[in-house]
Amino acid sequence: MPAYLDHAASTPVRPEAAAAALPFLTDLHGNPTAAHAWGRQARRALDDARDDLAEVLGARPGEVVFTSGGTEADNQAIAGVLAARGGVAVCSAIEHHAVLEPVERSGGRVVRVDHRGTIDLDALRDALDPGVTVVSVMLANNEIGVLQRLDEVVEIVRIHAPGAVVHTDAVQAFPWIDVADAAAAADLVSVSAHKFGGLKGSGALVVRPGAAVAPILRGGGQERDRRSGTPNVVGAVAMAAAARATHDHRKATVERVSALRDRLADGLLAAVPDAVETAVAGGDRSRKVAGSLHLCVPGVESEALLFLLDQAGVAASAAASCASGALDPSHVLAALGCDRALAGGSLRLSLGWNTTAADVDLALQVVPAAVARLRAAGVPR
Ligand code: PLP
């Protein structure tokens, strides 16, 4: 059996989500804005999905805006605040491009992180002033899995940029931590369904009362005028079911998967002793999400390594997935101060809700063998 260890890119659809989605792929095709019976049924399903998602996110139903995924939610947060209020956007240097690009393109400020990926709170203070209107700091990073202390970030923002709203990208955090609690102090929260067992192309932005966010999609005025476009009913219904299942099983999943991740990490570090575990010192993985393992392997090239792993049935990745599949140098590793040559040998193995011990066993066999083969072949760097 092959081992799928790329859950941070996209995790398999949970059975609960597939079951919830099925009727909306067959009989229940109405547009939720229509007045007839089909429309009313779709509307009810959308309302129920909103209620369920709101509950697990610690929000009120009216605060949930359905989007086409994490990218739209992130863009909406940054561009929406800037469109509503102007001012300056600030984010951390390891944000997903869906945050980083809108911030940089608007002439915003990017705050450095330390070598373990934690935002530098002094640098954050320096970047803030009353002209800042939105600050975005992710809960968990997609490449290296590092968690931020959002409460400390919010405290600093409230003092040094009192008019700013705080956005957090919780896309990678939701499978592993209780976002209702961890993001309680944030004004805007992004999630994406396909990272926790829902369908690709659906997500949500939580908009707390008082956070002024202008729509970026204008048209029919759906989502209470905050996001026009016919709602993706099947996506929302599946997302709510996946969110509920994730929430209900989270504690057990985290316990099980973190033990698998630790076994994988320790085994690979023993087999490839010069590999460096990114953003982890002394084996302390307590500031990382349970499913994340990131290594830099000296003397090998990620692309070649991933090719061999794929051939041997292990699906992994080097960094963030991107449309071209090209392995550009990672802005996250650069922000950590990671040596460029070492970063060229980066390997992300991300575990998820259905990862098994057999997946880990296969990776423990295949990864060291692939590294040894590349080194023996002297693949040029
Ligand atoms: N934010 C983070 C942290 C992500 O990992 C991703 C996806 O990789 C996104 C945003 C974008 O989400 P989506 O794929 O739903 O557009």
In short:
With 381 residues, the chain is α/β, with parallel strands linked by helices. The chain has helices at residues 15-25, 37-57, 70-85, 97-105, 121-127, 150-160, 179-182, 233-271, 302-311, 331-335, 340-343, 357-377, and strands at 3-4, 64-67, 88-92, 109-111, 132-136, 165-169, 188-192, 203-207, 276-277, 292-296, 314-315, 346-350.
Question: How would you describe the overall organization of this protein?
Answer:
The protein is built from twelve helices and twelve strands. With 381 residues, the chain is an alpha/beta fold. It has two domains: 3-10 and 250-377, Aspartate Aminotransferase, domain 1, CATH 3.90.1150.10; 15-245, 3-Layer(aba) Sandwich (Aspartate Aminotransferase, domain 2), CATH 3.40.640. The strands form three sheets. The chain has a seven-stranded mixed β-sheet with strand order 2-8-7-6-5-3-4, sandwiched between helices. Strand 6 (165-169), helix 7 and strand 7 form a beta-alpha-beta unit. Helix 1 (15-25) runs antiparallel to helix 8 (233-271), helix 2 runs parallel beside helix 8 (233-271) and helix 8 (233-271) crosses helix 12. The longest helix has 39 residues, at 233-271. It starts with a strand and ends with a helix. The model has no long low-confidence stretch (mean pLDDT 96). Residues 69-71, 74, 96, 98, 138, 142, 169, 171-172, 192, 203 line the site of pyridoxal-5'-phosphate.
